[in-house]
Prior knowledge:
The structure is a homodimer. Chain A is an alpha+beta fold. In chain A, 35% of the residues lie in helices and 21% in strands. Chain A has 2 domains: 2-146, Creatinase/prolidase N-terminal domain (Creatine Amidinohydrolase, Chain A, domain 1); 149-429, Alpha-Beta Complex (Creatine Amidinohydrolase). In chain A, helix 4 crosses helix 5 (85-100), helix 5 packs across helix 6 (114-127) and helix 10 packs antiparallel against helix 11 (299-312). The longest helix of chain A is centred in the middle third of the chain and has 26 residues, at 152-177.
Amino acid sequence: MKDELDDLLKKGDLDAVLIVGPASHNAPMVYFTGPVHVDGFLVKRQGGPPVLFCLPMEREEAARTGLDTRMLDWGGFNQTAGGDPVELEVLILQHILTETGASGNVAVFGRMDAGHAFSVLQKLGQRMPKVQLQGRSDGRSPLSEARITKGPTEVERIRRVGKITVEIVAAVVDFLTSQRAEGNRLVTRTGEPVTVGDVKRRIRLMAAERGVEMPEGLIFSVGRDAGVPHSSGQDGDPISIGVPVLLDIYPCEAGGGYFYDFTRTWCLGHAPDEAAELHGLVLEAHRRALAALRPGVTARSIQQQTCDWFESHGHPTTRSDPKTLNGYVHSLGHGVGLDVHEPPAFRDAAEGEEELRAGMVFAIEPGLYYPERGLGMRIEDTVWLRPDGKPEILVDYPTDLELPLRPRRAPRKVGMRAAHRPLQQAQRAR
Amino acid sequence: MKDELDDLLKKGDLDAVLIVGPASHNAPMVYFTGPVHVDGFLVKRQGGPPVLFCLPMEREEAARTGLDTRMLDWGGFNQTAGGDPVELEVLILQHILTETGASGNVAVFGRMDAGHAFSVLQKLGQRMPKVQLQGRSDGRSPLSEARITKGPTEVERIRRVGKITVEIVAAVVDFLTSQRAEGNRLVTRTGEPVTVGDVKRRIRLMAAERGVEMPEGLIFSVGRDAGVPHSSGQDGDPISIGVPVLLDIYPCEAGGGYFYDFTRTWCLGHAPDEAAELHGLVLEAHRRALAALRPGVTARSIQQQTCDWFESHGHPTTRSDPKTLNGYVHSLGHGVGLDVHEPPAFRDAAEGEEELRAGMVFAIEPGLYYPERGLGMRIEDTVWLRPDGKPEILVDYPTDLELPLRPRRAPRKVGMRAAHRPLQQAQRAR
Lengths: 430, 430
């Protein structure tokens, strides 16, 4: 948590952290500036308050962060730099490190062009021999250590995004189940095939209506595509009765704030036996993982128990065959916060040795994949390890595989209607 | 243009470019992979085809790029790296540079954490003494040189986003002018104040409906806020009659593709004399800039003539007073492409010495700002310098300041209706 940062800086022998990069979709910056987005630079010294440096043009936004804010004479630096963007950034960073009195070990974070960062930090290091600039040297940093556990406000922000996520999922289910079957195809009342693209468009619209963003996209894939975990689905693909569809969405607060990560797999109409059997195993793996989550166990041990479970039922895993594209082909989960993937990693590898701690928030997402058989299954929830050490799914949602089509009747009053509310208000407003 | 890249690599004595970072919202990667988003690494050697390295899990997406695609044994590298993300990335980059035979000067691009990039590239450089890794050393790089001029396909993609942008703007105008005045406030038919937040929500919704994203946000600001160029506007602010509102939107293709950049300033109902006078000067600056755009002139010279124009009418500029927050306080424009701000920079500084060339696409955005007087004005269009050397505003839209409220009558058949089309289709689908 953020209040541990000074201790972590001390422990890491760091005098300061330096945050660079844009205001939005830049987790280390947003961690300090909160929901106010200001393009600038930030220095947080051990024991001192964060100081935000920004352009005079952005002074109003900057003030709203509540941080100690200072103006940068960007034009003056740019003139001195003679239009060289590397030199410009070096001059600015030199100025802010000097003005804040930072010296010794300084860790750098924030989104930037990789080559530009390399040039700037090399040159800055040469220019300031008393400053030792550090990247992340071994995957651990005071900032990621602080961020790995979430305070109550952070948890509530994640839960809020989760509630919106689940609202969207419920509306998708309502939409899908209110269509009809024509042969094996899901079609609209007027007989047009319902496609992956139709559903994705509805999801994007609902996300916009609800003020969340999907900067990393979304996955809605059918059959064989669902069997390839990272395939995001083809817009033109029709949805068939009895063929698994997989929805994985990971929205975040507008402008790049906290994420939520969620997956369900469904069969419209009915589920074939093979799908039902795999789904049952995935659901049980999910249940067993939840039951095992507690402070002090390693993330790795829970990945291992999941491999045990799937292997004992005859499925290959990346442990039994590291190159398999069938069976259980990914890790069990990952931290969720200002990045959709952050520590801890539930991997059967060194980085999985992280011990779970109260305050962590992570996605638990077991799955089974058989692309050549047109099958992929995943069930994912975002889970908070509460202060009392118990895991809590932040927002509950049913895990049913089968989605029976609803008998025709008058349009429902809740489901998709809710999605239109802002437009109805807008129409009233006219 | 992309077909110049080999010559530019040769000219820059570069053996290869190495692209790192995520699949989406990562301009250098998207420049090569096109609209297909694959998390991976890309190497393009001088004279050779781009080679994309990706995870087996993403093999399906990767194949759709049409690029030479190779699988990475991520798990194997990760095991060797012992969970250290810096070492993991070093191993992968070492592998792909070796496999493609890259040696000598290699320029690195792509979005990454700054400190992580610094650590990785330092270590990689030590590991591969025959490779000289280069960041952007002086603001110029073969990749930005190639990207600075756009081919016909790129221009049409930008224009397509522009058409959507202007559709959204037209719908906003239709919405605003169909409200009514209550005293000095713009209110809905039911008497509720129309706020900045209402308008922003409608814009986000329309963007989602039309399949564009606004990863950098948007600006819709009123009065004093409009006088601070980077203030994005307060959701709760009401809209008043006769007070300037400024709308600046810069959407891009979904997932991070080409941008369009557009600004208009309006007064609802009527425009006070002071606003009209400033607006007239800004419009004339815009017209004069357009008239001066042609291949061979420097971007700087057009910024200078704009300063001349505003100064000759008694307004301070950043040239007459570098620290001014009043008058003309920013540069005239910037390139628009896969980044919303890219070269050329229309600045009165060394980087403005760029000569304009046919094929460039840039935003031209003169403005005047008097925050203490509650005023800010900007008019911005995205302009293509055509192969015949003539500038073309990619999508036309009126520049009127005054937006008279429309007399009450039956709802219009076009405006906001268009915004609802996808929903109506959806409703039909039920």
